[in-house]
Amino acid sequence: MTTNLSRRSFLFRSAGIGGAALLAPSLLAACGDAGSSSTSTPGAGLVRTQLAWVKNVEFAGMWVAEDKGYFADEKVNVEWFAGGPNAPTAESVVAGGTANVGMTTFFDQLIDGITADNSLVMFGTQFQDSPLALISSAKAPIRTPRDLTGKRIGGQTGNERYIDAIFTVNGLKPDYTFVPIGFDPQPLIEGAVDAMFGFNTNQTLILREQGFDDVTVLTSEFGLPVYANVLFAKRSYIDENFDLLVSYMRAMARGWQVSIEQPDLGAELAVNDFGADLGLSLDQQKQENRIQQELMQSDLTRSSGLFRMSADFIEDKVYPWLTASGRTNLPDLSVSFDDSILAAVYANGPVI
Questions:
Q1: Which family would the database say this protein is a member of (predicted)?
Q2: Which alpha helices (DSSP H) does 134-262 contain, by range?
Q3: pTM confidence score
Q4: Between 3.20.20.10, 3.20.20.150, 3.40.190.10, 3.40.50.300, what CATH number should domain 132-222 receive?
Q5: Comparing C-alpha atoms, which of 80, 62, 84 is closest to residue 71?
Q6: Fewer CB atoms near the end CB (10 Å): N or C, the chain?
C-alpha cells in the first residue's frame, strides 16, 4: 500500500490549513490518523470512512450530522479516517479493507483505482463541480484556454495531463512551459509562473489574505467539468450493507442541509472539535465553507438531492476529456456507478 505524501491534494490544499503556506510538524503528524469514531450508539452499524483530506471544514456537513445526532438517529456509528500527506490513497484503503467507504478529491484518480480494481463502485459525490482551478494575476489574467498559449504554468508533476487536455478539448495545440512547484503560491506572487493550479477554496483565499489581486478560473470553465470528493465502496460491501449505507447517507445529507443554511456552524465544529489539533483559522474555514457549498449544488441536486451523480454527465462531459488526457479503457458505468443508495435516501423528495 503506497502512501500519498506527494499526491496532488497535499500540494494544492495544505495552504488552506490555518491560513498558512506550510504545514507545521504537529499537523503533519496528525494527518492520516488512525481514525476517530462518532458518539457510539448501541446496536448501530459501523461505517469506517476514509476522508479525502484532513478533518477540516471541507466535511462540515458530516460534523454537523455528528453534532446534531443525525447518525445516532439512523443507528449508524462512523469511524473517520483523516486523509493528508501521510495517508494512503482512499482507493487503496478501501480496496485493502481498512475502510468501508472512501472519498477521493480527484475523479481521475478514482477512475484509475477502478481500472485497477473493478470491485470499486462510486455512489455519490460531494462536489458537483471541482474546486480545482487555474489561478493567475489580475495584472496578466488568464481567463480562457487560448490565454494559456505560451505561458508558464505551475503545478505538481502529472498536471501536464490536465493542461494538455485543456488545449485538446478546446481545439488548440498544446503550447506552454510546465514549471513543477509545490503548494505554496509564492512562485505566482513572485512572477516565476504565469498561472498555477490550486483550489478556489484554499490558494485563492490565501493569496487574497496577502493582498494579491488574482483571477481564479475553475478548470470546468476551461473544458474539464468533473465531480470531486466522490464516495465509493466495494460492490460486495454495498450489496451486503445497502440499508446501512442508505441510513449513513441520509444522516450525512441532513447534516449538509443544515450546514448550507448555517455555514458558520460547520466551521466552528471543525476548528473547535473535529479538527481541534490542526490549528485551523476560523475566519478562513468560514470563507471556505461558503465557497464550497456553491460547488455542492446544481440543477441535479436541487431536483434530486445533495450528493447525486449522473452517469450521462460522466459519459458525455467527463470521459471525453479523460480520453483527451491519455486514458483508455474507461470503466463501464453500468458496473462502476450505483445510484440506488441515494435514490432510496431521496425517495420522498430532494429535501429530508
A1: Belongs to the NMT1/THI5 family.
A2: 160-169, 186-190, 203-209, 235-240, 242-261
A3: 0.90
A4: 3.40.190.10
A5: 62
A6: N
